[in-house]
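Justification of resources, computational component.

The compute hours requested in this renewal are based largely on the per-chain cost of generating structure records like the one below. Each record pairs the submitted sequence with a full structure-token output. That output is archived, and it is also reused by downstream analysis tasks.
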Amino acid sequence: MYKLFFTIASGVLPFTSRVFASSSSGPTSGGPVGGGSNTEITIPNPLGSESFLDIAQRIIDALFRISIPIAAIMVLVGGFQIMTAGGDPKKVTNGRNTLIYAAIGFAVVLLASSVAAVVQSVLKP
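The structure output for this chain reads:
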């Protein structure tokens, strides 16, 4: 254990001293304290939205676009399970449950979009 610690410390320690030595800013180093030029760093907005409501609406739209094909595929899977049950009541029940859960899941996604619309109408001035 000690050998591992000393191996890591001996590999990292030389780099930390260089970082701290080069990051110190004084009057002669040309940093902001020494009267050098202040360069402003700007970070672009990766989301492309300015408010929380826009971000929430984008997330809900993406979930809606994903949920439509998933719900359709699950309806097909449930129907396939029922058709290939061969009279086995357990397989028919399994297919029926798949259809019910697909419908419930899609209903939840639809309700989420309506809830988001209500929240947006309440939060907007």
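Confidence is low (pLDDT under 50) at residues 19-24. Residues 52-123 form one domain.
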